[in-house]
Specification:
By secondary structure, the chain is an all-alpha fold. The protein is about 70% helix and about 0% strand. It has 11 helices and no strands.
């Protein structure tokens, strides 16, 4: 499914570069909902989020005029651009410290609580356990909460997450690992393992963690 989506985006992007404006509209429609959802979690100021998304798509449209435009992963590119734009605008309003370089760069507050409601429908566990899991995730540090969102909800791979958070792929793996361990301390380990096994479809990876 993921490969099919990626191939479709690649097709649309290449069609747009060849002059098909309808393809650009399709790209916008495919990404706009996810960008708003992610943006609102990075900033409570919806005007900033809306302005950034508008600027990003205008810039993306203008990139067609440039020579040798190459975007390896469009969704990752859009999320990186959105995170950077929101960070800069928020910094200008002095709501938090300017973005720093290195491992802790782009340490934006992940403000909106994250709900697993749709994903939890797949699990045959009690409502009480589901509520505990949601509370546990929402109590995690911002960075851990964000990587769970990107990996679980947006179904991004480690290289995409690394680009967005401006860390190495190995650091992204370790960050998710620490996040899972944090959840394991709060809720039944079997529930955490099952939750992520359903998404990743690779139980063996998580068996070693728990």
């Amino acid at each position: 499914m993921r490969d099919s989506k990626n191939n479709n985006i690649d097709f649309l992007w290449n069609a747009f570069l060849r002059g098909d404006d309808k393809s650009f509209s399709a790209i916008y429609q495919q990404h706009i909902e996810a960008m708003f959802s992610y943006g609102y979690k990075l900033s409570a100021d919806r005007e900033i989020v809306h302005d950034c998304i508008q600027e990003i798509f205008i810039d993306l449209f203008l990139k067609r005029e440039k020579v040798n435009v190459r975007i390896e992963n469009l969704k990752s590119y859009l999320f990186v651009a959105l995170r950077n734009c929101i960070g800069k605008k928020m910094s200008k309003k002095r709501r938090f410290e300017p973005i720093r370089s290195g491992e802790e760069s782009n340490n934006i507050s992940f403000q909106t609580e994250y709900s697993f409601q749709e994903k939890l429908i797949e699990l045959e566990i009690s409502g009480e356990i589901k509520k505990k899991l949601q509370t546990a995730v929402n109590s995690l540090p911002d960075r851990q909460k964000e990587i769970i969102y990107l990996k679980f909800e947006e179904e991004m791979d480690y290289s995409e997450i690394a680009d967005i958070l401006k860390i190495s792929v190995e650091s992204a793996r370790k960050l998710l690992y620490r996040s899972l361990l944090s959840l394991r301390k709060i809720v039944d380990p079997a529930v955490v393992q099952t939750l992520f096994a359903i998404f990743f479809q690779k139980k063996s990876i998580f068996m070693s963690m728990f």
